[in-house]
Design brief:
Number of helices of chain B: 14
CATH topology of the largest domain in chain B: Peroxisomal Thiolase, Chain A, domain 1
Strand order of the largest sheet of chain B: 5-4-6-7-1-8-14-13-9-10
CATH architecture of chain A: Orthogonal Bundle
Strand content of chain A: under 5%
CATH class of chain A: Mainly Alpha
CATH superfamily of the largest domain in chain B: Thiolase/Chalcone synthase
CATH class of the largest domain in chain B: Alpha Beta
CATH topology of chain A: Non-ribosomal Peptide Synthetase Peptidyl Carrier Protein, Chain A
Shape of chain A: globular
Oligomer: heterodimer
Number of helices of chain A: 4
Number of strands of chain A: 0
Radius of gyration of chain B: 20 Å
């Protein structure tokens, strides 16, 4: 996973959540960042626009933290299926 | 204070073109969820909805009149005609001047607005049809009902998302109970199948890609529906005096707001609305024999509603049947509360429990008797109908046989 990708996803989360990007690390959980289900849906929308991808509902449901989100975006950009990685929780 | 009875019912939706067909479908456990026909869904993540099959404004409206009425308001008038006819109302000038019309709608005629905005935003045209505003306004249903019957009393529309129709029926109930109106036409109507609205629902990620399975462990979201249901309410003594057939009594109405989150439901808010309805009806929880659940089929609603029912009903929660008829008629948003009130009324009248269809796998977190898949005979005296809207605005109606 490239540093550029990590940075872009962190920026999307920061802009959508209206929090400082410094607060977001690759290991942050959504819970730590105060991201609830509606916030999560907003972030998915912003990611779809940022990367010009379509994130399936089923894949989206598995995502609980920033790392899973970046991995999911990476897979979709590579033409794979997001959320295929085992869920941490 | 009057006792308030239902003397007329009317419906149109995925389960049929009148209240009789609607009732028969509930008894048969027929699911009205099929591929959406009125909109091209190829660019959507879902394909299915609960539409009125092969709907055309004729024979209900001539072409000229239909030009002025969006599909959602056409449904309102169609259901109101049936309810008025069944009630056998004899209109006098005095009754026309004082009868109330209270309808619910969530999105109003947004299909009309959607089409108009395609003209200016997409096609680059410089004008929108002049009827866009009068067809789109959420009160168009109430307005067209008033013109249809020449009713000139208090008429208005309530828009509280998925609780709209329940709030409307509740207000009508209280107006007739208090004597503020001698008769009310009330219910809700909706027709949300336009591409822009469907896209907006898709973005929320709450719509099922296949079907609606309330309370089932494998549930994966709601399915949108359309249609209308209307009721005629009048005081018991007036109904008796004119020899009207009494279909059910409304005995209580309760409201609450979650003050919590704009989309996530709260068990506390739902529980307080149910308690308020029981209190208004002067009923104890153990007297309730059936609950028509809000039961959207989303993870969040069904879990929260189960918790709320357990909180209010205690040990009786293991005995009271709870079903979601949205599994059959879909989630008709601002019409949902009216279709579900109708389901509760015919369940009491005809002695059956409408099922929760598409139910496959029990969910330990939703461990209520959800009347899975098959309707059941049951002689019940009191029923509740739950509506819990986005925005946390809750409305619960209590009915008696």
């Amino acid at each position: 996973m490239s540093e550029e990708l990590i940075q872009r996803v962190r920026n999307v989360i920061a802009n959508t959540q209206r929090i400082a990007v410094e607060k977001i690390t690759i290991d942050s959980s959504f819970q730590e960042l105060g991201i609830d289900s509606m916030d999560g849906v907003n972030i998915l929308f912003a990611l779809e626009n940022e990367f010009n991808i379509s994130i399936p509902d089923e894949a989206a449901k598995q995502i609980r933290d920033v790392r899973q989100m970046i991995e999911g975006v990476e897979k979709l950009l590579a033409g794979g299926v997001a959320g295929a990685a085992p869920a941490a929780s | 204070m009057h006792r308030v009875v239902v003397t007329g019912i009317g419906a149109i939706g995925a389960l049929g073109r009148d209240a009789g067909e609607f009732t028969k479908s509930l008894m048969e456990g027929r699911c009205g969820i099929v591929p959406i026909q009125s909109t091209d869904c190829s660019a959507l993540r879902f394909r299915n909805g609960a539409e009125v099959q092969n709907y055309h404004h004729r024979p209900y409206f001539d072409d000229k009149r239909a030009d002025f009425i969006d599909r959602f308001a056409q449904f309102a008038v169609i259901a109101a005609r049936e309810a008025v006819e069944l009630a056998g109302i004899e209109w006098t000038p005095q009754l026309r001047e004082s009868a109330a019309i209270i309808t619910g709608s969530c999105v109003g005629g947004q299909s009309t607005e959607d089409a108009g905005f395609v003209n200016v935003y997409k096609l680059g045209l410089n004008r929108v049809h002049p009827l866009t505003i009068p067809k789109t306004m959420a009160n168009a249903g109430a307005s067209h009902i008033s013109m249809e019957f020449g009713i000139t009393g208090p008429s208005f529309t309530i828009s509280t998302a998925c609780s709209s129709a329940s709030h409307a029926i509740g207000q009508a109930f209280w107006m007739v109970r208090s004597g503020a109106a001698p008769l009310a036409v009330t219910g809700g109507s909706e027709a949300p199948f336009s591409f822009g609205i469907l896209k907006a629902w898709e973005a929320l990620r709450v719509v099922s890609p296949d079907t609606c399975r309330p309370f089932s462990k494998d549930r994966n979201g709601m399915v949108l529906g359309e249609g209308a249901a209307m009721l005629i309410l009048e005081p018991l003594e007036a109904a008796r005096a004119r020899g009207a057939r009494i279909l059910a009594e409304i005995v209580g109405f309760g409201m609450s707001s979650d003050a919590c989150h704009i989309t996530q439901p709260s068990a506390d808010g739902a529980a307080r609305a149910m308690r308020a309805a029981l209190c208004d009806a002067k009923l104890g929880p153990e007297q309730i024999g059936y609950i028509n659940a809000h039961g959207t089929g989303t993870q969040a609603n069904d879990l929260t509603e189960t918790d709320a029912i357990r909180t209010v009903f205690g040990a009786h929660a293991d005995r009271v049947p709870v079903s979601s008829t949205k599994s059959m008629h879909g989630h008709a948003l601002g019409a949902a509360g009216a279709l579900e009130a109708l389901a509760a009324i015919v369940a009491l009248r005809d002695g059956f429990l409408p099922p929760t269809v598409n139910y496959t796998v029990p969910d330990p977190a939703c461990d209520l008797d959800v009347v899975p898949n098959t309707a059941r005979e049951a002689d019940i005296e009191y029923a509740l109908s739950n509506s819990f809207a986005f925005g946390g605005l809750n409305a619960v109606l209590a009915f008696r046989k």
